[in-house]
Amino acid sequence: MTTTATPWRKQLGDTKERQARDYLEHQGLHHIASNVRCKRGELDLVMRDGDTLVFVEVRFRASGRFGGAAASIDSRKQARLSAAAAYYLQRHPIALPCRFDVVAIDGAGALTWIRHAFVARS
């Protein structure tokens, strides 16, 4: 199922992704790519943390009513992110270890960085 974000939702998403990128760069990570899309999914951010390639999913939830931002990354979403990462690595062969991180942002703007949030799914 493909959905098109409304303009305000896209703008909000772009703002939160920029907030996450700024935070991670401040923590010493280096930005490589943003919004890498393929048929099976999208990578919000691709960053480098020392000798590790990091695929970052940025999640924003205004309310914690249904578990909050981090809880919204279910096994289906993890599989899509894994497929998108495999796509990226096919096109950009990089001999580095990889990991999946999540940056969860709540309605108050509090940001939580979860390193090694999950392992790749096939």
From TrEMBL:
Source species: Halochromatium salexigens (Chromatium salexigens)
Q: Which family does it belong to?
A: Belongs to the UPF0102 family.
Q: What is this protein called?
A: UPF0102 protein CCR82_10725
Which branch of life, at top level?
A: Bacteria
Q: Name one GO molecular function term.
A: nucleic acid binding
Q: Which Gene3D superfamilies match?
A: 3.40.1350.10
Which HAMAP family does the record cross-reference, listed alphabetically?
UPF0102
Q: What is the lineage of its organism?
A: Bacteria, Pseudomonadati, Pseudomonadota, Gammaproteobacteria, Chromatiales
* PANTHER family linked: UPF0102 PROTEIN YRAN
